[in-house]
Amino acid sequence: MISVYDQGPPPPCPTPFNMAAHVLAQADNMSCKIALSVLGEEDWTYAALKAAVLGTATGLLETGAAPGDRVLMRLGNTVDFPLAYLGALAAGLVPVPTASALTSREVAPMIATLDPVLILHDPDVACPDDPRIVPLEALRAMRSLPAADFHMGDPERAGYIIYTSGTAGSPRAVVHAHRAIWARQMMFDGWYGLRPDDRVLHAGAFNWTYTLGTGLMDPWTRGATALIPAAGTAATDLPALIARHEATIFAAAPGVYRQLLSQPEIAAMPTLRHGLSAGEKLPPAVRARWEAATGTTVYEAYGMSECSTFISASPDHPATPDVLGRPQQGRRIALLGENGPVPLGEEGNIAVHRSDPGLMLGYLDAPEETAAKMQGDWFLTGDQGSMDADQQITYLGRNDDMMNAGGFRVSPLEVESCLARFDGITSVGAAEVSVKQDVSVIAAFYTAAAPLDEEALRRYAEANLARYKQPRLYIHLPALPMGANGKLLRRALRQQFEASR
Questions:
Q1: What is the DSSP letter of 217?
Q2: Cβ of 364: how many Cβ atoms within 10 Å?
Q3: Nearest Cα to 402, choosing from 494, 277, 278?
Q4: At which of 330, 363, 393 does a domain end?
Q5: What is the pLDDT of residues 143-185, one digit of tens each?
Q6: How many distinct structural domains can be found in the chain?
Q7: Which of 393, 422, 437 marks a domain boundary?
Q8: Between β-strands 297-304 and 308-312, what pairing exists: parallel, antiparallel or unpaired?
Q9: Residue 432 belongs to domain spanning
């Protein structure tokens, strides 16, 4: 038996199609129902949500933008983010959401690459000065404009672009089609156990793609209610919010579960059915503590920017301990070696078939890089795993040096190229290291004539790298470990550090 899961394709995406129209298809039937509650601040009915989205679409088009044009989003952790995102999609524009933590230095090359017609800008978010900027006040005023019509078209056309860290050291622009939202239906039963009467509380910020998909668009597609904590809410306050607002599903990254469980007592959450986790591997000890403290299960999912989540546990198909889960119904997944699918139980590269509706169109203006990720009809994720006879998949780690910081993948090359410009550093290597059980951080190992001022290093990183990319440790070494070919051995840096603790 070989490691392939293929139980038939999902229903084909209809045409013509629009991603925002699909997300808001339930709005007219439940206009008075609460679609979004920003806890303690504001509520949005489905009618108000749809009106604001289509009014925003009108306003964006009135600037002179045309379907197919790119719109860069430099917005903060506010409801402005999903409204602008869906408004751009409704108008046929191509929104490009970006992390608000990025610095102006990091955003500038994105602007040069994308050449967006508009830049939607919150003044509290870093962004270079640019004549294409639409200020937040103008963006908010668009909500009350007359509704635009949804721009319907080929589901294969470009819908949105997201950035992911690349192994080459600079972020890669990943282009997705409108049909990507159609693929997310496979998560409703394959991961969430999502129902129209659910109240889904997602602990992430509005401007994180995990929140945007799992916390907002998927509940809206299903006709459920999305609950988002106000900005600045502490993880330890979440159980009380879950109880007070009668949340039935809770979603967060593993780090939030860890912080939430740091308190001695957890408030009772009588309406909660289960939790969801994604972004990085959930440590077994954290899962065990959650289940012991709450009496509910956490269902984990695996995915990536190029294909969202496609392997998961779910209420209908819970995973055995230490296993990610199964491919969702409608997916075609394989574990590949050099000569194709490996036998069951053997390690292989987790791969997604090119027919998956959630798979990206490709990397922006990089056909060779896109082709390099394919092996025949399979997209290679770069993650290793094994499949058992029950088609459950165990995650075995990356086959490269990519780091994970709070659910964001970070290329060590990007961190290294930034720190290499710091005066006095002669060489530098970045690696994710474990500092205690279930806790890992980014560490920068460097060589210099003498140890450098660590506070100065931190200030430099703060000015030039998004917070999640900034090293938490700076370690001076006499030399960095190198292979016979002169290549930096980042795994050796990690191993040496952890062995010394």
A1: I
A2: 19
A3: 494
A4: 393
A5: 999 999 999 999 999 999 999 865 555 789 999 999 999 999 9
A6: 2
A7: 393
A8: antiparallel
A9: 403-499
